[in-house]
Amino acid sequence: MMVCGMTHATMFFRKSQTANKPKVFTGMWNAEQNQHVTSMSDFPKGSHVFGITTSPLGDIMVGAGNPQTGEGTVSIRQANGSWNSIVLPDETAWLSQFVRLDDGSYVASGMTLIGRAAILKSDVTAQNWKSIDMDLHSYCQINSLIQLPNGELLASTGKMITQGKTKPILLRSKDQGVSWEIEEVKLPITQFHTFHMDGDRLYAGTCGDHSPVLYTSDDFGVTWNTLPQLPSYKTYKTIALQPIMVGGEKRILAVMWGYKIDIADRVVRLYVTDSEGKAWNELPPVLDSHFLFSFYVAPDSTFYAGSEKGMFLRSKDSGASWEKLARFPTNIGAYAIHQHNGQIWLGKDFVEPDFTSLWTVNS
Questions:
Q1: Is the CA virtual torsion 341, 291, 248, 242 positive or negative?
Q2: What is the block-wise mean pLDDT of the chain (363 residues), using blocks of 10 residues?
Q3: Phi–psi pair at 142, nearest 5 degrees
Q4: Of 251, 233, 229, the residue nearest 242 (C-alpha)
Q5: Rounded distance, CA 137 to CA 290, Å?
Q6: What is the pTM of this model?
Q7: Facing residues of 340 across strands?
Q8: Is the distance from CB of 154 to CB of 221 less than 8 angstroms?
């Protein structure tokens, strides 16, 4: 059984072993990347960026983690462009998912320094963070956290069974993240990896072994409906699952990563349902990508993808073709992609001595 949600953890701790090795960047690389993306050189150095959201001040707020110290932070951009960074408690390595509640406070999720689930709450200023009153030691990194239309919070994780094996778990809060109920999921999956709400319908992308099974729910995750069967994989992970508009019709997009035969046969595949929603049509390859760390569909239907080989990619034709906006000198194209006031932000890994981990796409 495949462990999901541990890509960030692997990269995080790997970087902590090699962070003292400086990287040399060539002028040719700088000329290429500066055409389409701009570095936020004033962002605090030293941390990988895993999550981006809107701050209490109306600008952006960033969840990051320092690979050398294991220290997680939330950094809030100030009106003058400077950053206010808050150190997270309880050995929280980073926060990648944020929900802003109706009262202005936040609930956020991610991972602890030892690779376990982390859920924290803050006040309306996002200056004061506190772990929820719940023992999460037996659960791995939170993969997805959303607020449902009925006000409940839903988080996806996996309960550690043995080394390399988990079983799917949902954590549900009915009181704004103060307390959480544990729900065991009896489905043929390892975990839910991604959630997306469309009206009252919840789309749930999964990860696991063999034939991928993807789901929707019309009662906020109490019962599940299966989507059409996808081609078989040895192991797989759903990077994104959500409805999109194609030619004026609503279709479902599934972004999949996995091994077809063995570890040397890694593939990234995009599928869109047909007009009847009964079968999947495979889209062209995402250039030469064999792994995606992030995927984002903008309100104007533009696709953005953070790939391996340091590639940050864009498609303006619903995945029919792709362009390379940047190729960074590290393997991570982007961990996090977020749009704020029409501006696309991307967060990635930090590289010594001074290579920033926060960037924007040039308009």
A1: negative
A2: 47 41 38 73 93 97 94 96 96 97 97 95 98 95 97 96 83 97 95 97 94 96 96 92 94 93 79 94 94 96 96 96 92 95 95 81 88
A3: -70, 120
A4: 251
A5: 32
A6: 0.91
A7: 343
A8: yes
